Amino acid sequence: MNPAYVNHEIRNAIEIRGLLKTYGETHAVAGVDLEVQAGEVFALLGPNGAGKTTTIEILEGYRDRDGGTVSVLGEDPAKAGLSWRNKIGIVLQSNNDAAEITVEEILNFFSDYYVNPRNVDEVINAVGLEEKRKSRGRELSGGQRRRLDVALGILGNPELLFLDEPTTGFDPEARRAFWDLIRGLRADGTTILLTTHYLDEAEALADRVGVINNGRIVEVATPATLGGRDSAKVIVRWSEGGHMKEERTDSPTELLRSLGARFVGEIPELTVSRPTLEDIYISMIEGEA
Amino acid sequence: MSTFKIGVSRGNLEIRQFLRQRESVVFTLLFPVLLLLIFGSVFKNTIAPGVTFSQYFVAGMIASGLLNTGFQQLAIMIPLERDDGTLKRLRGTPMPPSSYFIGKILAVLASMVVQIILLLFVGALIFGVHLPTDIGHWITFAWVTLLGITGSTLLGIAFSSVPRSGRGASAMVTPIVLVLQFTSGVFFIFNQLPSWMQNVASIFPLKWLTQGMRSVFLPESFASQEVAKSWEHGRVALMLAIWIVIGLVLALKTFRWERSR
Fold it and tell me: Which chain B residue lies closest to A156 (C-alpha atoms)?
């Protein structure tokens, strides 16, 4: 085998070229190109119906594609076997299974399926379900169920983890704990492909984000630079003569100096902000539609 | 772990889940016993020399027990598992698909064994059913049961692809089982049915299963009361084997891990 090819494989956990998927007349995925590097956390963002889940389920081997090439950990998911599945972890969007099995039971049973599973107690601790380990699936709250899904996803010690809207139904504290868990997995070298509706989550976790809309990738960038965010004008707001004033500028420091000279003491109700990832994302999606 | 070991682990999980759902325990295991108690107590008449209706009914209920624990249970449970995401989750793990089926077969076998023991126990204790004392009858019992449960399991897996949703599965499967029970010599005596009904029922496996079970639990003299004037062991085996092949082909061709979109 060509050494360059080997190196190439190690660099990219996922490679997609010209991916197509059609349902009847609808092009759910209309030519997606994407690379996810080994060891990175990549967040796929997009409105409902943009093609996120279809793309992810093709990568997970659940759905056939109508065109294009796909390589996940060096294999075509449509043909890959059980040894490939041993290296990936999947957290699907929603499940109501395991109603009558306890958290520790299902984890113990599922660890039989993997070659090198994590320790079940460690996994239970990692997702914060210690108190619920003897509870059956139907006794768990929405957020606890989701944590069980994540526990089952990471149980097999995956090289690549798919997380489809993992924190839906989490309270803010659980979300922070989940973020720490993901950061820990990343530090261990796990590649993570994440979809989420929470832009703060993408910003907190992702090395790179990709925005998908109408079945196409609109842009791939770091959260800080997406949509020219790093070079976008800074918004300065303050109160003057009983009215809120707003100015968008490339040189906020200069503006603040001149404002400082105009006011005696503090500038009333001053805020200086850069567009959030959400501002940028919304303008990208609306610009497309 | 080997495919078989994982299958045994699946079987363990399946049986635990089954026992924790009180409805399924009552419906699958105790309902046939309840039916036996009712029918056996109401119809105490003798239908042939030395044969009471309750004896006839026990043989029929054991045969249809194979249908209940295999076909009915799987054709209802698998669509539910397809709906609640059990199957999709499993498909995303390195569990060999055959292990899932081994687990199902073990769960079916477990509930079948419990059901047969309950029916035989109640039948022998309350309704004077004679258990065979010679090895020949038990050999017949073994092969009829084996062919029956194999076909029933495969047909249950095959039929699980028919209901569009888990909630509709029970409403779809239960009437099929009931109609077969009425026309195949469980609730009514087969040779008293209209001949067109006998002919239709003869296409389906339950008729042959009840006949095979009667050859085990009723006296030899009753063979002359059968429609063909004999137990027709060869034909019983042939018909059950045909249904096993049909079930196997359909199960392999139609099984889906996700609901159709």
Answer: B93
